[in-house]
Amino acid sequence: QVELVESGGGLVQPGGSLKLSCSASGNIFSINHMAWYRQPPGKGRESVATITSGGMTNYVDSVKGRFTISRDNAKNTVFLQMNSLEPDDTAVYYCNVLIETRRGAFLEVWGQGTLVTVSS
C-alpha cells in the first residue's frame, strides 16, 4: 500500500507565493512520473506540471514562468513552487505519482488534495 500526504495549501493574496509538498510512503521500490493537477471550483481537473524520474519537466501554458515543479528522490517527495499567484489559480491541487512496488507492480496514486485560494 502507498500513501501520499500533501501540504502547503492556503489563502494567499494575488501576487503572492505558496509551496506545495507531497510525500509518498509505503511499498515503494521506485517512483517514475510525478505530477501536480488542479481542479478549480466547478471545473474539471487539469494537469499543471509534471516531472520525470530524470528531472524533465513540463507545464501547462497558464503557469509557465510562475510555477516550478521539483522532486527529492531520497525523500520520495515532489514540490510545486507557485509564484505570482493569480485568482485563476484558485483550485484544489492534487499530486499524482506513478510508483513501482517492490513486487514489480506499477500503481498510479493520488494525493488527498490541498486547497489553494488566491484572493484579496
The share of residues in helices is under 10%
- Give the strand content: over 45%
Average the pLDDT over all residues and give the rounded result. Answer: 96
SS-derived structural category: mainly beta
Give the helices and strands as they follow along the chain.
Answer: EEEEEEEEEEE
Shape: elongated
Describe the biggest sheet? 7 strands, mixed
Radius of gyration: 14 Å
Number of strands: 11
From the N-terminal CA to the C-terminal CA, the straight-line distance is 41 Å
Unreliable stretches (pLDDT < 50, length at least 5) are none
Task: Report the total helices.
Answer: 0
Q: What features would you describe in this structure?
A:
The model has no long low-confidence stretch (mean pLDDT 96). This protein has 120 residues and is mainly beta. The strands form two sheets. Strands 2, 4, 5, 6, 9, 10 and 11 form a seven-stranded mixed sheet that branches. A four-stranded antiparallel sheet has the order 1-3-8-7, with no helix packed on it. It has no helices and eleven strands.
